[in-house]
Amino acid sequence: MNDWYGTAKAIIAKVHETLPTDADLHTRHQACLRAKPWEFATTSWGRKVWARAQREYLVPFGYVPKNAYVVDLISPLQRAKAKSERRA
Question: Can you tell me the distance from the alpha carbon of 81 to that of 10, in angstroms, rounded to the nearest whole number?
Answer without folding.
Answer: 45
